[in-house]
Amino acid sequence: MSDRRQKIQLGDALDSYQAGLARDGDVRAFDLLYRRWHPKLLRLATRLTRNPDEAQDVMQDAALTMARGIRKLKDPARFSAWACTIVRRRSPTILIKPSVAVPPKQSRLRLRPRRVRTQVQRSRSP
Asked: Would you list the DSSP string of the chain?
């Protein structure tokens, strides 16, 4: 097994262990876990918002959400996915390209206003 792969597995095991402790109420474990993940989550928020200042705001909101909701985390091994989801949901949805009003192409057909038939005209129709 490669050295890099071992480090990744060790990091995942450490995350899972610390998330389990944090879920059980260990504030220090949550602090260590958050410090470890903050740079990665900040990069995600910066990519989503495309603005470093907004990314900081997103991270503050996400940190509060994570701190308040860590006890609801069902599987500590899924902490990274849980944290990334919180950051994504807290990010403003500016990734969606703003719709530019494009005028519709001129139709070749000239549409005439529809003639409304009155009750009298309907009764005379065969």
From this structure: --HHHHHHHHHHHHHHHHHHHHHTT-HHHHHHHHHHHHHHHHHHHHHHHS-HHHHHHHHHHHHHHHHHHGGG-S-GGGHHHHHHHHHHHHS-S-SSPPPP--PPPPPSSPPPPPPPPPHHHHHH--
Domain that holds residue 25: 3-90
Q: For the stretch 15-48, what's the b/e string if a residue is b when 16 or more beta carbons lie within 10 angstroms of its beta carbon?
A: bbebbbbbbeeeeebbebbbeebeeebbebbbeb
Residue located via tokens 């849980």: 82
| pLDDT per residue as tens digits for the range 98-113 | 555 555 555 555 555 5
CATH of the domain at 26: 1.10.1740.10
* Closest C-alpha to 55, from 66, 43, 64, 37: 43
Does the pTM surpass 0.85? The reply is no
In a domain, 82, yes or no: yes
